[in-house]
Amino acid sequence: MFAAIRRWFDPEEVRRVGTAPDYRFSLANERTFLAWLRTGLALIAGGLAVAQFLPPLRVAHAREAIAVVLLLLGGSVAVGAVVRWGRTERAMRLGQELPMTRLPAVLSALVGLGALVLLALVLLPSSGGR
């Protein structure tokens, strides 16, 4: 595992594999990586915003749970982005089919599920009655 992480920070490691693809493909791969990184940062910012600015919800510790989930999801997306970038770059250099990833499907499912949970929390009747 540490060897894989070390490779992320060694730009020459990528160049040792296969032959260089058309630079436009490498730049497209980098743009995709940056888009995933922005998504991760947005989730982290959302987690911090929930923790700092969302008023307490009707369910005990729901605000904290939402913040932690968003922070963990944002970090996971950022790590997944660099893994995906490396796998894609390697495949291009070796002339292989681009690797598939479950990251978009998993992220979409989690965001949709999160929206349903938040909807339930918003619509949940208060215990004090109105």
Automatic annotation (TrEMBL):
Ranges annotated as spanning the membrane: 33-54, 66-85, 105-124
Record's keyword annotation contains Membrane: yes
Membrane topology note: Multi-pass membrane protein
Keywords: Cell membrane, Membrane, Transmembrane, Transmembrane helix
InterPro entries: DUF202, IM_YidH-like
Residue ranges constituting the DUF202 domain according to the UniProt record: 24-91
Keyword Transcription tagged: no
Cellular location(s): Cell membrane
PANTHER family in alphabetical order: DUF202 DOMAIN-CONTAINING PROTEIN, FGR18P
The name this protein goes by in its record: YidH family protein
Species in which this protein is naturally found: Micromonospora sonneratiae
Phylogenetic classification of the source organism: Bacteria, Bacillati, Actinomycetota, Actinomycetes, Micromonosporales
